[in-house]
Amino acid sequence: MKISPLFTDLYQLTMMNAYFKAEKRGTASFELFVRKLPENRNYLVFAGLNDVVGLLQNYRFKSEDIDYLYSLKLFSDDFLDFLKEFRFTGNLYAMREGEIFFQNEPVLRVEAPIYEAQLFETAIMNQIHISSLIATKAARVFSVAKGKKLADFSLRRTHGFDAGMKVARSSYLAGFDGTSNVLAGKVYGIPVVGTVAHSFIMAFESEEEAFRAYLETFPSNGVLLVDTYDTVEGVKRAVRVAKEMGVTLKGIRLDSGDVVELSKVARRLLDEAGFTETKIIVSGGLDEYRIREILEKGAPVDAFGVGTKVGTSADSPYIDFVYKLVEFNRRPVMKTSSGKKMYPGRKQVFRGKNGDTVGVFGEELPGEPLLEKIMENGQPVKKLPTLKESREFFLERFSKLPEEIKRVDRRVEYPVRISEKLKELYRRTLSEIERES
Amino acid sequence: MKISPLFTDLYQLTMMNAYFKAEKRGTASFELFVRKLPENRNYLVFAGLNDVVGLLQNYRFKSEDIDYLYSLKLFSDDFLDFLKEFRFTGNLYAMREGEIFFQNEPVLRVEAPIYEAQLFETAIMNQIHISSLIATKAARVFSVAKGKKLADFSLRRTHGFDAGMKVARSSYLAGFDGTSNVLAGKVYGIPVVGTVAHSFIMAFESEEEAFRAYLETFPSNGVLLVDTYDTVEGVKRAVRVAKEMGVTLKGIRLDSGDVVELSKVARRLLDEAGFTETKIIVSGGLDEYRIREILEKGAPVDAFGVGTKVGTSADSPYIDFVYKLVEFNRRPVMKTSSGKKMYPGRKQVFRGKNGDTVGVFGEELPGEPLLEKIMENGQPVKKLPTLKESREFFLERFSKLPEEIKRVDRRVEYPVRISEKLKELYRRTLSEIERES
């Protein structure tokens, strides 16, 4: 999807016009980070970088865009002429997609003439936000699923089209196994999965007739929904119909009622009938809290179809990402009002065995540096991993995260230290601001 | 934006294939409704109809879509051939955009051959959901704003691109005055608004220099952000710079700190300097609860810039819309398991002076019928209102809603009655289901 350059806040363009008029073109660095994690999140998962690289590379104002801006009677003609030729010419640093990150850690930095770096704020934040929000939520679900299969079933209630695509992609990135979103299957190569709906069962004279019609069409891979009328009867009927037809029953789905008890009964009925390979799939109002509960109660579930609460990250539907000016004309800067502390200057994040350290960019510290150069002078200098590679990377990183941090029921803070050099830079910058004002 | 027909759940297509094989082509009616309002919502606002009409009209499988479906090895060849020529051929009924609605009231009905009506479930729900979710949230903000101007500033943290556009549109529909989203301004004709960011102030040697640069570029419509360093000093400085330059100060923006106290101080400073026309704009973490509080404390605010919490409907980030089969082959149907009551058959909603009545479609009842025919045999039969007209319609409808229902701090239920005829149909359908099973 190509994103129009007008997909931005008006003030990005008015500020840009003011920079242009003031001939303010020095290089600025903006970093994207989170000051404080949401209350019920112990870690965040970085995602959406591919979209950012795509939008920086393809950022072009069309003549109809310029015409619209002209119609607003806000901008100077020479500025609008300048926009016609506008291209991103800066550098982009970022973490890898699938990386785990914490408070005060920049996940991305744009270095460019200030009017450029500023202009991209809105679109960069918008795109990283939704993908990281969902990758994080999905990772929590993955962390409690004990290896059971997970499928994204959220499409009908994601926040629109783009979210629907990004929820499918980000949940797969963070350990899910598939999605019901067919377009995401086509575009991203994610395995697509699905069963059957209540309306299908209801459209036939009887449940039995509906089961027959479905299994005739899908004799080797039919998953039947058994809870439209009476669930236990539904399971028995599914078994009987499959036996009579001599077909495989790939799975049954439970979407309502006491799924813990029902799954136990269903498993017993299936096993007694020799359908030991038939999977039990549970859906309906699931999230990490509910899945954890279902599994702790010993429900013999093979797969979960996870919907709305994950696709909207319902218990924490936004992350307070900020995109802040940290350096201008080689001078570290920071905002001091509002009581929200931030650190000045360009930074690097080092991952050690006992936590992370945020240091000054260029500083050598123990641990693995997490920010790498993705674009230079407006051009990509690094081939981005495929989605499957990023998924592998996430799984590897996630496996190293302490179990305590993975808890979904308790706030545990991962240690993020500030290097001595960065602390010193903070003090120096603060005293300079105080001297000047 | 054209939405691909693959933007659907896989099971819609597998069920369709099974209907196709079973030669099940009878006419079905599906209704979209909400069984129970979210806990902190007394009413909902219907929006997104234009997107649904667009997607039904333009639903075409491309050959690359068919190729992808073929690659899944799930579907029969004759079914895929059938999809190539697939068009929506049914009828669409819906409420008007901007209508207020409540539990158990269908907002939309699709009448079509069952495989068609089923196929569209995912996309219709996805599109109506996000627009109605945000129109509802924005209406709540509008209800407490006491006529102060409201602008959507949420773009950076909406759930992706499509949500960004729909948040701008739906909030305008529900009483907002403008958006910062420039593309929404171009596409929907919504007034675009904006001020200046902290980074702009920080990019200059001093706040004063930044103010000068901005006002030089926008001498007649500059809004200055005054809280980057010290807010009270910032206000004084803004006044002094504007006076020295002999320009108008259209407004100042407060984005942090105790905005109630700061706005009072700022208003006094502005008035003392003769800047009585300068507006005070407040932003930062706002929603209906916070705005209500700010205004109750007597803050002299002229406009609010409303962001993330409204753009993600953070206190209630989804609505449990369902799209249920209510009639098949002229026979009313309903799902009975799971304890979630629903009413069978095609319905009409009547708005009376003392509440609504949901009746059987075709039944004559007092009050205004809310569902109207939008498409017939796949073609639009009604010109949709413009966004401005829908906004007027919302404002008129909202003005008639009892004040008690508009409360944002308390659950109050609007009376929705079920007609005698519909109750009788429910009992009859239930006893038929019980007899058959």
Can you describe this structure?
Two copies of one chain form a homodimer. With 437 residues, chain A is α/β, with parallel strands linked by helices. The first copy, chain A, has two domains: 10-134 and 316-436, nicotinate phosphoribosyltransferase (Alpha-Beta Barrel), CATH 3.20.140; 145-311, Aldolase class I (TIM Barrel, Alpha-Beta Barrel), CATH 3.20.20. Chain A has 17 helices and 19 strands. In chain A, the strands form four sheets. In chain A, strands 13-12-1-5-3-17-18 form a seven-stranded antiparallel β-sheet. Chain A has a six-stranded parallel β-sheet with strand order 7-6-11-10-9-8. In chain A, a hairpin with a 2-residue loop joins strand 12 (321-328) and strand 13 (331-332). In chain A, helix 3 packs antiparallel against helix 4 and helix 6 packs across helix 7. The longest helix of chain A is centred in the first third of the chain and has 24 residues, at 121-144. The first copy, chain A, is elongated and about 85 Å long. The mean pLDDT of chain A is 95.
CA radius of gyration of chain A: 26 Å
- Helical residue percent band of chain A: 40-55%
Mean pLDDT of chain A: 95
CATH class of the largest domain in chain A: Alpha Beta
Protein chain pair with the most extensive contact, residues per chain: A-B, 111 and 111 residues
**What is the number of domains of chain A?**
2
Percentage of residues in DSSP E strands of chain A = 15-25%
Helix-and-strand structural type of chain A? alpha/beta
* Largest sheet strand order of chain A: 13-12-1-5-3-17-18
Major sheet attributes of chain A: 7 strands, antiparallel
CATH topology of the largest domain in chain A: nicotinate phosphoribosyltransferase
